[in-house]
Design goal:
- The chain is mostly beta strands.
- The protein has one domain (9-390): Beta-galactosidase, Chain A, domain 5.
- The protein has helices at 30-33, 105-108, 251-254, 339-344, 369-383, and strands spanning 9-16, 21-22, 26-29, 40-45, 55-60, 64-69, 75-81, 84-86, 119-124, 131-136, 142-147, 160-166, 173-182, 188-197, 203-212, 218-228, 238-240, 243-248, 273-279, 286-292, 299-305, 311-318, 325-332, 349-351, 356-366, 389-390.
- The strands form four sheets. The chain has a ten-stranded antiparallel beta sheet with strand order 2-1-12-13-14-15-25-21-20-17, with helices on one face. Strands 9, 16, 18, 19, 22, 23, 24 and 26 form an eight-stranded mixed beta sheet that branches. A six-stranded antiparallel beta sheet has the order 3-4-5-6-7-8.
- It is globular.
- The model has no long low-confidence stretch (mean pLDDT 96).
Length: 401
């Protein structure tokens, strides 16, 4: 499970359903292992209310801390870097155990009843807006079904969870997990993830591998819904990326296309605006997107490979603070449209039996103008002075609207 770390390393299995292993409360620190730097990892189970029986793992590398939630598909609830909050203030204040959710509620929007994470995966067998699709049932017949918002993976508990600590430089701190999305006569996909940071760093890395465990080819989609509020999102904040082209999702988004990359203060009654983009990459297929505050001295970036995550979605939801003031930076294998639409555009991955699809993303935080300007310049180099093509109305290849 997971990617190789520098050896030697310390390892602790916290959950292994197949082997009957489960550790409810556990912690480890740099002092206990006698290694350099100051860091800690703590695992505990929550009790009471909607979070009852949720497991969380808090990683603190000495400067950067974040909370991994194995019970909710190995999502990352929230983080903090040098006192700066990472995530957003959702109307859902607490973590919600999956058994409280009905994904089919409100016409397939039940996923939103537990949505409050900084980083959450959408997928794996489907993602995007609710809508009709056709499956092959247990008798080999075509059957019409309704797919729910953003799929199932975010609400499936991990079957395996492990912590690994490198005992030699760079002393990686890694939380690993395996989450299965499976059904008899249906999808059988395994998500294996490693969430890694190093002591004192300003970044974390997510390395995912999705495997088709069926004996026949099957479909796969994944999108990383990465959500930011204050202090990075504020009036005058801006979005920066090496954009090849951008298109509004619908007529409401069209109204804001002139300022799609700029943000306002919270506004009561604001209706979400969504923009679908194609990005550019460097010679090695690396690309980067960034959210920059008004003063230009705070920013958060996501770096990834464009051949792994070719579709990027910008979700603007700058409504009232009480309703969730947030922007979503969303790299994915497809756009978050109904699966049938994305399939028609050849944006749904087909995995052969036993084959894997690998993805890696790096999340970085900058707290001074020099670092922000350096990353802006790197993005400009990727863009190579290409002027983005801006579509003012939805286009049929990107949007069913």
């Amino acid at each position: 499970m997971g990617l190789p770390l520098s050896k030697p390393y310390f390892s602790k299995t916290l959950t292994d359903v197949e082997k009957g292993v489960y550790v409810e409360d556990w912690s480890i620190s740099s002092e206990e292992l006698g290694v350099a730097h100051k860091w800690s990892v703590e695992k505990k189970r929550l009790h009471g209310g909607l979070p009852d029986n949720i497991d969380i793992i808090t990683v603190n590398n000495g400067e950067f801390s974040f909370i991994v939630v194995p019970t909710r598909g190995m999502s990352i609830w929230k983080g903090e870097y040098k006192g700066n909050f990472l995530g957003w203030i959702s109307p859902i204040k607490e973590l919600v155990h999956p058994h409280h959710l009905n994904l089919e509620a409100r016409g397939g929007l039940g996923w939103l009843d537990g949505f409050n994470e900084w980083i959450v995966r959408c997928g794996l067998s489907s993602l995007g807006a609710p809508g009709p699709d056709t499956i092959i049932d247990n008798m080999g017949r075509r059957k019409d079904v309704i797919l729910t918002l953003h799929g199932r993976i975010a609400n499936i508990p991990a079957s395996k969870v492990k912590v690994r600590i490198g005992l030699k430089p760079p002393f990686e701190i890694c939380v690993e997990g395996v989450v299965y999305e499976r059904s008899m006569f249906g999808p059988n996909l395994a998500l294996t993830t490693s969430i890694t940071t190093t002591p004192g760093s300003n970044s974390l890395k997510i390395s995912d591998s999705i495997t088709n465990l069926r004996g026949i080819p099957d479909e796969m989609q994944i999108l990383y819904h990465c959500n930011y509020g204050a202090p990075f999102l504020e009036e005058g904040a801006r979005f920066m990326a090496p954009i090849k082209c951008v298109s509004p999702r619908d007529s409401i988004s069209s109204r804001g296309i002139e300022g799609f990359d700029a943000f306002d203060s919270p506004k009561s009654g604001f209706i979400e605006q969504v923009y679908f983009t194609e990005l550019l990459a460097d010679e090695e297929n690396h690309t980067c997107v960034m959210l920059i505050n008004k003063g230009g001295d705070k920013a958060a970036s996501i770096s990834f490979l464009l051949n792994e995550l070719p579709c990027f979605t910008l979700w603007k939801n700058t409504g009232a603070l009480e309703d969730g003031y947030v922007v979503g930076l969303e790299p994915g294998t497809s756009f978050p449209n109904p699966k049938s639409f994305e399939r028609e555009r050849n944006r749904v991955i087909k995995l052969e039996p036993g084959k894997q699809y690998k993805v890696e993303l790096t999340f970085t935080v900058y707290l001074n103008r020099e670092e922000v300007l350096k990353t802006e310049e790197n993005i400009r180099k990727i863009a190579r002075k290409v002027k983005p093509k801006v579509f003012r109305e939805p286009i049929k290849d990107f949007s069913p609207q």
